[in-house]
Design goal:
The protein is mainly β. The chain has one domain: Porin, CATH 2.40.160.20. It contains two helices and eight strands. It has an eight-stranded antiparallel beta barrel.
Amino acid sequence: MMRKLLLALFFVGTTTTIFAQDELNLTLSGGVPMGTKVKDVSNMAFEADINYLFSVSDHVKLGPSVSFLYFNAKEKAESLMFFPMGGTIKFTSSNDDFYVGTDVGAVFPITDESGKGGVYLKPYIGYNVSDAFKVALSYSAVEVKGDHDSGYIGLNLTYNFL
């Protein structure tokens, strides 16, 4: 009985240590649209992003990311919506207060006006307010096959669940 208890405590302790360095983040963003097509049809952009980051070293994390990107429509225009999927890499400062990173991947249009699919890039720089909350500035860029690119400069608010 004692052996099983010690084994259970060892398992809980090691898995807690393993996951203590990982991050499960939910980010909500909003900003001003930029780009050849989007600035003519939208005046505000919103994005929701979730990612899971694995520690590669003390100051480097990477992992998968999925987002929903929405450009609201101006009068007599159709909203643009995208579904970016890819990966995230994040570098933290030596004291873990500041970080820089980028999301990169493929983007899939949701609406007909959004084009055909293409490439997604979102570089950012941020500050860890606490273990759970982060704030960052970013530029989200969507390069769509065809006739336009879309993007926005935004403010990101992030909650880390782990």
